[in-house]
Fold this protein.
Amino acid sequence: MDFSSKLLENAVNEMSQFPGIGKRTALRLVLHLLKQPKEHTQKLSQSLQLMRDEVIFCKICNNISDRDVCEICSNPNRNGEIICVVEDIRDVMAIENTGRYRGHYHVLGGKISPMDGIGPGDLNIISLVERVKSGNVKELIFALSSTLEGDTTNFFIFKQLETYTINITTIARGISVGDELEYTDEVTLGRSIVNRVPFESSLKST
Amino acid sequence: MDFSSKLLENAVNEMSQFPGIGKRTALRLVLHLLKQPKEHTQKLSQSLQLMRDEVIFCKICNNISDRDVCEICSNPNRNGEIICVVEDIRDVMAIENTGRYRGHYHVLGGKISPMDGIGPGDLNIISLVERVKSGNVKELIFALSSTLEGDTTNFFIFKQLETYTINITTIARGISVGDELEYTDEVTLGRSIVNRVPFESSLKST
């Protein structure tokens, strides 16, 4: 791609470093900025930079926060005896949106994936083990995605905590609410029968 | 969407103002920045702001440039007697990439589209008429997209220039090189037969 302006080229190159954004999309986005008032670009770049420089990761659960301890960890109405282990902050947001969970979280920051060079040391696993060691935790809920990497990570953490007397559970896999039985894959359908639950439990909150 | 950090929320809101980028995609992009070193975000926001503040539109053709007069308009080896009228800078880049055009351009900045509130006054049409009036222009090539808006814009400019003795042409519509005849829509196929060209002309440059 030949650009008529070096400034434009630099901006496009920077924008195209986002995952899933190629040169053409980046150009479209940057040209959009040119059609907007200058203040718009100023606000955008300032908010990105401020976010990157000032955002804090909760020192307990590693969730993104504006304070040392995030709102969930510091909320006295939430149950600190249950920790839900998730991959990243988007999973926290998704579970929070359900309004069905009142425990704490632990954000790992990824999954063990040797293919991508991510080992246990790159994730927030040690701090999770420390939280369990501290003695207040009664249950750990694994909510990683059910891929090879997710299962590996679950198993690694499970092994680390074998000697502690806590419940380790995993979120239920089954047929999505509203989905048709006949179109569900066999693994999911099989699991949903093996792991069937008492009818009245579908009304509970944790 | 509930965010655990106000800074994150602001950044996501700003990112989601780009066309085609929703809140979820914006969050994915912003979280990507958090995984990169701080310098990365700094470079990104600086290059965007610098581009927005410093970029110049060529005072002749309105192409994006780092100087008052763009490289194409100031290139003595290019033919200023031919002007190719395009919608935006991406079209200039596309035509330049072909390497088959050695004339000048005129970037309108859009198409006449009453539905979107874009009238002739919002486009760089007056400056185009001025360029023709100056007397050096022999041919105008319309290269707008063949939509209702593109045709309207072409016709509007054509009407403005009726009294001047210049050639007004439009880029050829026809079957894309490599496409199969049988799958081409009727309008395109019909036009490509009506506007057939001498065989040897497919080898020329302008």
